Amino acid sequence: MTDHTTPNDSAGETVAISQDDELRLNTEVYHPHFTSREYVRLGTHPTVDLIFVRPVAVDTADPSEADIASAYKIDHTSYTGEVTCRRFLQHHNYHHTATTQYVAEWWPDHGVLCVDLTDPVPTSEQP
After folding, report:
1. pLDDT of residue 29
2. SS3 label, residue 89
3. Tell me: the pLDDT tens digits for 10-69?
4. Distance (Å, rounded) from C-alpha 40 to C-alpha 57?
5. What pTM was estimated for this model as a whole?
6. DSSP E strands: which ranges in 57-127?
7. For residue 62, how many C-alpha atoms fall within 13 Å in the half-sphere facing its CB?
8. What is the gyration radius of the CA atoms in the chain, in angstroms?
9. CA dist., res. 25 & res. 44, Å (int)
10. Neighbour tally for 100: CB within 10 Å
11. Which of 15, 110, 120, 124 sits at a 20 to 30 Å CA gap from 99?
């Protein structure tokens, strides 16, 4: 995912990890994949620094304890989605002391957003 000129425009899809332990999904990735869901599940790759973000359906009227324990709520803003996930980031040693944006790519075959922690967006390209 280091080719920032890919034809599918994945360079525009980014996720920021903030020093407040939030994942911030930018507009390009948030609107097509996450606006219809209230929760996500997070995962990692066993040997590569990747975070997987999967939108999931949770019965918001009567969520089960298992659903709440394994899912993180998306805070929907006007243009982006924010996921507060301190426990997850600290457990996997992904806590950040400064907000950093990373290239992200939607994997349609798996229904998951892949965030590549080895591919930060250069500071000059960050808004």
Report:
1. 92
2. helix
3. 448 999 999 999 999 999 999 999 988 889 999 999 999 999 999 988 766 666 666 667
4. 8
5. 0.81
6. 72-76, 81-84, 100-107, 112-120
7. 0
8. 14
9. 17
10. 17
11. 110
